[in-house]
Amino acid sequence: MSLSTPFSRRLYLRIWLAVVGGIAVLTLSVGWAWRMAEEQKAQNAQPFVPPSREMVLRDNTGNVVLRGLATRQPSEPGEGAEFHIESGDGQPFVLQMAPRQPRGERGGGGGRPGDAFWTRPPFGFLWLLGIVGLAVAIGVYPIIRRLTLRLEALQRSVQRFGEGDLSVRVPEQGQDEVADLARQFNAAAERVENLVKSHKSLLANASHELRSPLTRIRMGMELMGGQQPSPAFREEILRNIAELDQLVDEILLASRLDAREADVGTVELVDLIGLAAEECARVDADLDVSSSPDSVDVRGVSKLLRRAIRNLLENARRYSTGEITVVVHRRQGHAEVSVCDRGPGVPLTQRERIFEPFYRLPGASERAGGVGLGLALVRSIAGRHNGTVHCEDRQGGGACFVLRLPLSH
Questions:
Q1: Which residue, 370, 405, 408, 407, is CA-closest to 389?
Q2: How is domain 267-406 classified at the architecture level of CATH?
């Protein structure tokens, strides 16, 4: 394994090394720039020439030996000092002083620890930046490692999800981009898991529902034994074939509605009152549009909206013992189609489950007609049109199924 492999496969190492490298480059750049500035400053600096001052030289008895004006001459750094003295009678004198010894050489070559060469500019400043850089590098490591640990947890979850474990979820910690990514992954994973479960349930229930009419047809053919079928038997065979045809049609439609990219028809302006009137005439139901004298238009696929209203009417006809009323009206920017019956109603605990594929109320599985996909299709169609459907009680007994769709603008 090459040395570059750990760094190429570990995000936290790359981030940490990037921070450390940036600090190192900053340290060297600042130190170099500071040193160059000092050198340039030393080159451009003009020697300071102090003004002339009076100088008095006395002997050990205090008598004045020499009195005059002393002027210091310019000199380069590291050279000795030179003073020109002019006495009162105009006689010139020169006073020369040896160069100053380095600090480390004073007192027999000793000195304070702070006088070492690495403490002098620019080395002292580089040491300071180096210590700061080291402290920053040590301090940011746990922060970067904590961030990448969350990314590694997300990576492991994605890997397990790709291997088939659809129940895997990522812990949602914090409010940053990583936490948002974890929430999006969990939402997508939950949707995929529900979709797969729905398809598995659809296949399992479809195979069961398809088996029942096929079994009845096969048994009827065996009992007939090559004889001419009676009218009653012929009617039973046709009823089972119609049930098979309806089941296959509803399964195919449910699959297309689940696949968002599937083409289910042309979106156009649909008059819900006209659509409801046609379907009510087919099953002899009452239509009430008194609260909406004008047309109620929505944008959608006409055949799907017709199918939704038809399924609600057929469901009401199947369980109702009295009249069926359809009400179309506007409410808060939405169009509502309410299909109300006088049946036994739906218990409060079952009002969500009845919209699940192949789910039927207890004791209703043996009723004539229906395979448990009608209301599930209504919910899928409503979702395709950014609408909703729910069940509520009807005053005086029965149930009302309310299809709510956004109005066209």
A1: 405
A2: 2-Layer Sandwich (3.30)
Order across the sheet with 399-406: list the strands.
Answer: 286-288, 325-331, 334-340, 399-406, 388-393
Q: What is the pLDDT of residue 108?
A: 44
Instruction: State the pLDDT at residue 46.
Output: 55
**What pLDDT is attached to residue 340?**
93
pLDDT at 399 over 80: yes
Judge whether 196-258 and 267-406 match in fold.
no
- For the chain, domain boundaries: 1-42+115-165, 196-258, 267-406
Write the pLDDT tens digit of every residue in 208-219. 666 767 777 777
d(CA 48, CA 71): 12
Tell me the C-alpha distance between 340 and 323, whole Å: 9
170 or 392: whose pLDDT is higher? Answer: 392
In this structure, are residues 84 and 70 in contact, taking their beta carbons and an 8 Å threshold?
yes
Tokens 């060297």 belong to residue: 28
DSSP state of 161: H
Provide the CATH topology of domain 196-258: Helix Hairpins (1.10.287)
**DSSP string for residues in 344-405:** S---GGGTTGGGSTT---TT-TTSSS--S-HHHHHHHHHHHTT-EEEEEE-TTSSEEEEEEE
- pLDDT tens track for 115-140: 455 555 555 566 766 777 777 777 77
CA distance 51 to 69: 10
Would the pTM count as exceeding 0.85? no
Biggest alpha carbon distance in the chain?
Answer: 162
Token look-up 């008095």 returns 56
Q: Please report, for residues 15, 18, 20, 130, 144, the alpha-carbon distance to residue 25 in angstroms, rounded to integers and kept in the order given.
A: 15, 10, 9, 11, 20
Tokens of 408: 């066209």
Q: Which of 186, 177, 117 is nearest to 151 (CA)?
A: 177
Question: What percentage of the chain exceeds 90 in pLDDT?
Answer: 13
Number of continuous H segments (helices) and E segments (strands) in the chain: 9, 11
